[in-house]
From TrEMBL:
<dbReference type="Pfam" id="PF10170">
    <property type="entry name" value="C6_DPF"/>
</dbReference>
<comment type="similarity">
    <text>Belongs to the CDPF1 family.</text>
</comment>
<dbReference type="InterPro" id="IPR042426">
    <property type="entry name" value="CDPF1"/>
</dbReference>
<feature type="domain" description="Cysteine-rich DPF motif">
    <location>
        <begin position="12"/>
        <end position="104"/>
    </location>
</feature>
<dbReference type="InterPro" id="IPR018785">
    <property type="entry name" value="CDPF1_dom"/>
</dbReference>
<protein>
    <recommendedName>
        <fullName>Cysteine-rich DPF motif domain-containing protein 1</fullName>
    </recommendedName>
</protein>
């Protein structure tokens, strides 16, 4: 991996799933990109698998309610105008649109109930 340009600023750690990875930028504008402005302040790194300098990966960002650092994985957070961690979404589920409520309900159903 060539980290010559933009060496890591630190290590990003998700508070929910323990994902950790070095990040090379934090903010709404990844370095070396011309027209990209992200919708949120986030932790990201240059895509190590792409030779294109403009390619980058978003690792995660801060929950807008509890300020926990969470990754963008579907099990940890969702983006609905802002970033929310899933525990906060559950606490405020009625303030989210039906579509998101339905998605979350689906996830709950994946927990198997044993009947023995
Ligand atoms: Zn996570
Ligand atoms: Zn939260």
């Amino acid at each position: 991996m060539d980290l010559n340009e933009g060496s890591a600023l630190g290590v990003f750690r998700c508070k929910l799933c323990e994902l950790s990875s070095p990040y090379t930028f934090y903010g709404q504008k990844p370095p070396n990109t011309r027209a990209i402005v992200l919708l949120e302040e986030c932790y990201g790194m240059k895509d190590p698998f792409s030779p294109d300098r403009e390619k980058f990966l978003v690792l995660g960002s801060k929950c807008s309610l509890c300020s926990k650092t969470v990754c963008v994985g579907a099990d940890c957070s969702l983006f609905y105008t802002k970033r929310f961690c899933l525990p906060c979404v559950r606490d405020h589920i009625h303030q989210f649109p039906e579509q998101i409520q339905a998605e979350l309900a689906k996830k709950k159903n994946t927990q198997k109930t044993s009947s023995s």
